[in-house]
Every structure is written in C-alpha cells, then in structure tokens.
C-alpha cells in the first residue's frame, strides 16, 4: 500500500516562497504521474501542476512562471517550489500519484496561507 505525505506548508506573506514536498512510502513505480492539486475554501479541487515519468512538467496558467514541480524518483519524492505567492494561492495543497487506469493515491494535504 502506498502512502503520500505532504509537508512544507505554512503561512507566508505575499511575494514569499514555500517549497512543498511529498514523500511516497511503499512501492511506487516511477511510471506514475505525480500531481499537485489545491482546494480553497468553498472551491473545487483544481490541478496546479504535474510531472510525467519523463520529468516533463505542466502547469495551470495561473501559476506558470511562479511554481516549479520536480521529482526525485530515487527518493520517491515530488516537490513544488512556489515563488511569488499571492493571496489567491491560499488553499490546501494535495499530492497525487496517478497511473492511468491502474491506481490513484492521494495525500492528506498541507495548508498554504498567503497573507500579510
């Protein structure tokens, strides 16, 4: 059984930076696509970024140029470096591992609050 554990969230001022980490325990093939989602209060969960097994990143338009997703398969870890944070980035951020048609795993989430 695979478990995903996120860390690195917190309170930051507008313009600040945070680095989220997601560590996968158990056997997680490097074939999995790794994704970061977020969910703000009263909003639907939205995809923020993903990285393919070949380390190709993709981003939602609202975070392009500010966020960077990366993965370290040797450490079973995916990262989300968030720079230039804005109040509208405030949300619970969730890590997800997806192998299409096979399995999807979710972490419990980590809170990111951007406020002065």
Structural description of this entry:
This protein is mostly beta strands and 116 residues long. It has strands spanning 3-7, 10-12, 18-25, 33-39, 46-51, 57-59, 67-72, 77-82, 91-99, 103-106, 110-114. The strands form 2 sheets. Strands 2, 4, 5, 6, 9, 10 and 11 form a 7-stranded mixed beta sheet that branches. A hairpin with a 5-residue loop joins strand 5 (46-51) and strand 6 (57-59). The radius of gyration is 13 Å and the shape is globular. The N and C termini lie far apart (40 Å).
Number of strands: 11
SSE pattern, N- to C-terminal: EEEEEEEEEEE
Q: List low-confidence stretches.
A: none
Structural category is: mainly beta
| Major beta-sheet overview | 7 strands, mixed
What fraction of residues sit in β-strands? over 45%
Report the mean per-residue pLDDT as an integer.
Answer: 95
Which shape, going by the Cα principal axes?
globular
Distance between the termini: 40 Å
Cα radius of gyration in angstroms: 13 Å
What proportion of the residues is helical, as a percent range?
under 10%
User: What is the overall number of helices?
Assistant: 0
